[in-house]
């Protein structure tokens, strides 16, 4: 990895297919744009069809020769996740960027009854990755990049209460749990890919403190105007732009020599060039990651088959 890694270090992506979840704005949009700029065909996987279409139009205006497409995906609805995977119908997939997420929401449930942050940030991406696994296994050098957060340090997963049903809901610990789950998922996926003899790379990234709509979404849902304004001001004064926040994800997705189960973030923790990031040791616990995996398969109904590798079309 270059010492001051930036978008100029992204290798040519021509002929490669990338799926970026939550690509209509913020980090996802910046990630999709830079991959498209380097020649990748990019599928923008977005919950809101109108916002996704606007993002595609914006990309075409910025990069007229870009090859981008929109597919609807609601990670808080497993039926939508399955429909997306069926519609994509890809026989190969070079990059799966599990970027979409929600942050510090008031208590909500997904369409399938899961706590919203855990259900969206972890279970939705767990199911999506499993459903797209055959295409990933069929593609030499494929990568799965899951976007976590430095705030994973706030809370470990509670295997006895994954859906926050046994204690009063607290939004920030719930967020920390979901982001710890992202790292445990990456750890277990990397281990299982290694045991299967696959060269698919599972890595994680985080943006540091980047100005996106995540920070204000939960506050806005409750109509709390003053806190929303305060957070928006802090974003303007202290956060790095989404383009900088996307660099760790882009680095994890494209930099040569990336190691399995790596966690890439800003060099300074909150901002700076991509570098290996601090990670709570518990997110590399083999027992916890295996138990979370088993629970995730049971909750989503999606099981991973690492033995089926479809042939790559000529």
From TrEMBL:
Keywords for the protein's UniProt record, in alphabetical order: Oxidoreductase
Coiled coil: none
Pfam families in the record: adh_short
Protein name: Oxidoreductase
């Amino acid at each position: 990895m270059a010492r001051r890694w930036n978008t100029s270090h992204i290798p040519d992506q021509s002929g490669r297919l990338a799926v970026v979840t939550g690509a209509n704005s913020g980090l996802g949009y910046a990630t999709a744009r830079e991959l498209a700029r380097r020649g990748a065909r990019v599928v923008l996987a977005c919950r809101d069809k109108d916002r996704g279409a606007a993002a595609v139009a914006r990309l075409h205006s910025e990069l007229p020769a870009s090859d981008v497409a929109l597919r609807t995906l609601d990670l808080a609805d497993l039926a939508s996740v399955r429909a997306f995977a069926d519609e994509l119908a890809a026989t190969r997939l070079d990059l799966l960027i599990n970027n979409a997420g929600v942050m510090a929401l008031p208590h909500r449930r997904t369409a399938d009854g899961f706590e919203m942050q855990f259900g969206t940030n972890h279970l939705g991406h767990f199911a999506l990755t499993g459903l797209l696994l055959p295409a990933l296994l069929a593609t030499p050098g494929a990568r799965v990049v899951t976007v976590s957060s430095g705030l994973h340090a706030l809370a470990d997963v509670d295997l006895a209460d994954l859906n926050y049903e046994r204690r009063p809901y607290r939004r920030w610990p719930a967020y920390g749990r979901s982001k710890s789950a992202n790292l445990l998922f990456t750890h277990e996926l990397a281990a299982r890919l290694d045991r299967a003899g696959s060269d698919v790379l599972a890595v994680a990234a985080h943006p540091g403190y980047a100005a996106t709509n995540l920070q204000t979404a939960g506050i806005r849902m409750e109509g709390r105007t003053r806190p929303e304004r305060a957070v928006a001001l802090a974003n303007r004064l202290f956060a790095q732009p989404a383009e900088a926040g996307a660099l760790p994800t882009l680095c994890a997705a494209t930099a040569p020599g990336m190691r399995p189960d790596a966690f890439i973030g800003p060099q300074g923790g909150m901002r700076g060039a991509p570098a290996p990031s601090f990670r709570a040791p518990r997110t590399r616990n083999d027992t916890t990651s295996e138990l979370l995996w088993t629970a995730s398969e049971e909750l989503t109904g999606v099981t991973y088959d690492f033995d089926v590798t479809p042939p790559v079309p000529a």
